[in-house]
Each structure stands twice: as C-alpha cells, then as structure tokens.
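Action item from last week, closing it out:
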Amino acid sequence: MSLLYLRSRPVISFDETDPKHRSYYFEFLKQGTWGSCPVRFTAEGLNTDLVTYINQKLLNFYVNKEFNRKVSK
C-alpha cells in the first residue's frame, strides 16, 4: 500500500449540521486553501464543484434555521 494513501486525510461528506465541518469551511474561506483541514470533503452530486455544493448546503441550513421557527401565539 502506498505511503501517500496511508497518510491521506479521510474522505467524508460535508454535514452542515456539524459545527466542526462549518469551522473547517470557515478556515478554508479565510485561508483560501484546504491545507489545514484534517479531512477531505466530497460533493455528493457530480454536477457541481465542492465549494458551490457546500455553499448550497449551508444556505439551506441557515434559511431553514431562521424561517422554520414556530410562531408563538
């Protein structure tokens, strides 16, 4: 087995509900690189790039979080 394979970062799907994943993405935005990220994210769809995929997931997460509140009477 290749040494590069053994030392590679684990590949996982981005979970917008996980604070660590959001923190990793924030660090990517600040630094402009995934170099310090301990994992590699994968886009579930083949029709978009990773950053667009994560942006869409985060947008849906925060919009649902803001507007799905129960209205108290």
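Closing note: DSSP finds three helices and two strands in the chain.
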